[in-house]
Design brief:
The protein is built from 4 helices and 3 strands. With 81 residues, the chain is α+β, with helices and mostly antiparallel strands. The chain has a 3-stranded antiparallel sheet with strand order 2-1-3, sandwiched between helices.
């Protein structure tokens, strides 16, 4: 299974990525072994994810999310607002 995810960093910023092992990736971000972006913004909290059958689908959704404004991303994280 492949995942597109959003983590909320300690400074309130949002980071989007994709992985085939969601738990391992979030742990890596929190240990400073994730993306350069999250190394100085630890800890992170998983706030959103979607499952996909293929890596290509997950990567495409990650790209779509990265094109969104912060307000649009917040709506994904909290769909009730």
């Amino acid at each position: 299974m492949n995942y597109t995810y959003i983590v909320k960093c300690s400074d309130g910023s949002l980071y989007t990525g994709w992985t085939n092992d969601l738990e391992k990736r979030v742990t890596a971000h929190n240990e400073g072994k994730g993306a350069k972006y999250t190394k100085s913004r630890r800890p992170v909290e998983l706030v959103y994810y979607e499952k996909f059958q293929t890596k290509e689908e997950a990567m495409h959704r990650e790209w779509e999310i990265k094109q969104m404004s912060r307000v649009q991303k917040q709506k994904l994280v909290r769909p009730d607002t």
